[in-house]
Amino acid sequence: MSLFMSILTLFAGVGVFLAGMRFMSDGLQQSTGKGLKQIFSRFSNKRLVGYGIGTGVTALIQSSDATSVMSMGLVNAGIMQLPQATAIVLGAKLGTTITGVIVALSSFNMGGFSFNVFFAAMSAIGVGMIVFTKKDKINRIGKILMGFGFIFVGLIFMCDAMKTEQINGFFVSMFTTINNPLLLLLLSIVFTGIIQSSSAATGIYIALVGAGAMTTYQAFFLVMGANVGTCVTAIWAAIGATSDTKRVAFLHMGTAIFGATLWSIILFIFGNSVAAFMDSAIAIPEWRIAIFNVTFNFTYTLILLPFINQLVKLAKLVIKDDIKPAHTALKHIDERLLKTPSIAVAQVQNEVVHMASLAKENLAVAVNALVNNDLSEKEILDANERDINVLNKEIASYLIKISALDVSVSDEKLLGALHHVISDIERIGDHAQNFIEFAEQLITEDASFSTEGTAELQNMYEKVNEMFELSLDIIKTREKKSLKKVSVLEDEVDALKKIYGDHHIERLHKKTCSIEGGMYFYDVITELERIADHLINIAFSVDSPTGTQTAVID
Predict the structure, then answer these.
(1) Residue 451 CB contacts under 8 Å (≥ 6 apart), including other chains
(2) Most CB within 10 Å of its CB: which of 38, 271, 346, 465?
(3) Tell me, what's the pLDDT at 41?
(4) Domains of the chain by start residue, with CATH
């Protein structure tokens, strides 16, 4: 193989390896989407539980960056507390070592049969599953197999290239020249910061050790540097975030630096002995580095785990609280969560529920103002209405961003439904605003509804409010068991509108209802009926994006 082709093969190998890491991570995130939602919906204040969550999730999705940034997003949205996020971040550092173990598998040989080639062949199986079937579940599994296979295809390319005398000689010469442990640590930090993946960097180092291009001792420092360099992603993600989110990034970086410092001291004193022991005890070079990577991350994170409260205090001491925390309508969604689409989908669903809760509260305030001539809570309604309008725009924008990501078919359908749901919620908020304006006019004109009319409005509102509660539950759970009840209630509201409309005309003829109050009664029951239409659209979005009803015309 010529030098040019060797260099080309080496870069191709690195590219395929990195692509494989990305494909496998994306496929695993899609396949474990529901599991991730369930795990992150049950946070615990217990350190070991948080540590286990961080380890398990990172092992599943093959990205400590994704886990850490996900935690930052949840902290920024106020869903997770700082001590919980710290435990998860520590666990993520251990979870990411699984990639090194996977890469070390490439070194297995049995009777001349190379596991490397066997694993690489999985990429063909994965591609076939993606190309020849449209089933979402099979496609996700195919993506995982394709990514897993690509990792080993990349390793084969890299190993073949490094067998070339010139390439191997170049790396041997380079690591002979750059033999200072601190310089190796620094170079690895920079390299990992550029490619933004400690797993990928560690995989490449393992391949270099396997090719004999560097010593075990040198690889130790490169692995530790990768652990620090990967924190760059979290630092960037913290820009412009809340103080607690910046503290998560600080702890992510700080704990990594602590681990690298602690083990650097150990290796400066006992490094040659440790390397010599591993060289003699473990015959396969790749496994020496994979085992060290696990040991390194496990020991320092376990040392820090009992001191989470002290770490949090340090972070608060270094990063001060925001002087004036600005009010934000958003409670659940955060740009950082887009790194893990399955979690972003779950959180935007929670945000829609939050938006609907504001509209429900406004409807209650507005109806109370109408029937009791009470405007004491108008400021609450106005503030909620501003938030509803902001949420409508922000959620719509967020839904578009998630839709551009690689999400599962079921999540894609949910996102389409939520687009229509927020539109219906926004219209309900507008109806509540109309009610408060009716109430203001009634008070200005010193008018009110008749006793019978007031009772009818309250009865109709109670039906609509029951629909609202059921619809909210359906948005949260995406279960269909309440759909029939919502449909029955909507029919009852339609019937009440006709009945109460007739009663209203009778009262006007009998003059038992004032002309001033009567002017607004029919408008109110008409808008309550329209709100019911919006609610049935919201409820039935679980079945189809636009609901089962015809479009509502306001």
Answers:
(1) none
(2) 346
(3) 56
(4) 3-318 (no CATH), 335-542 (1.20.58.220)
